Fold Glutathione S-transferase.
Amino acid sequence: MTIHDWSTGPYPARVRIAVAEKKLRSRINFVSVDLTKGEHKKPAFLAKNYSGTLPVLELDDGTFIAECTAITEYLDGLDGSPTLTGGTPRETGLIHMMSKRAELELLDAISVYFHHATPGLGPHVEIYQNAEWGFRQRDKALRGMAYFNGVLKKQPFIAGEFFSMADITVIGGLIFAGLVKLEVPAEYEALHAWYARMNERPSVKNRVTMSEPA
Ligand SMILES: N[C@@H](CCC(=O)N[C@@H](CS(=O)(=O)O)C(=O)NCC(=O)O)C(=O)O
């Protein structure tokens, strides 16, 4: 399998963490797509992913799977023993809900702030910007941080009692927050403590270097 990605990107991080958690590194060939040059918006890449975003998983039969959630669901199911996306209908529902909530209320909101209220990937990629919309989404992300801090006051992981795709998505959000220098307020102690625990996981710690030659 091939993953088309950008080694330091927040969304690619979600899939890199899932690859490591599922011990699939030896089965993956990473191919870098240069976002800074707008390669992801050129016809050759758009043929892989209509949405022009990274990462994209390319199967050996030529099938392309984009969208971090979809890629994670595929990878998690490969060994017939899903550990990241839920082992029962109740777990699957809760994990999907909390992962989608993490996208809507945190990660995607920070992405909009990055693309609209900062120089983003540069004028050749950011062909339309609306700073007010970007700042509104930044404020939404800060509310999202408060929400997830509240969740983590009551349970050890984002979707309940064990690590899941939902944790990985919030990790992606906080990686993006770091990249755009959006601080997690100090008073969100449960979120800070959880993030410190997450950063101790080898899958999180080694996510960027995993694609470097052994
Ligand atoms: N909904 C998509 C969003 C993916 C996404 O936005 N990826 C970023 C990659 S990174 O910024 O996290 O490295 C991207 O392609 N951004 C480029 C752009 O939006 O022009 C997903 O979940 O996979």
Notes: The chain has a mean pLDDT of 98. The pocket of glutathione sulfonic acid is lined by residues 6, 9-12, 35, 40, 53-54, 67-68, 111, 121, 125 (CB under 6 Å).
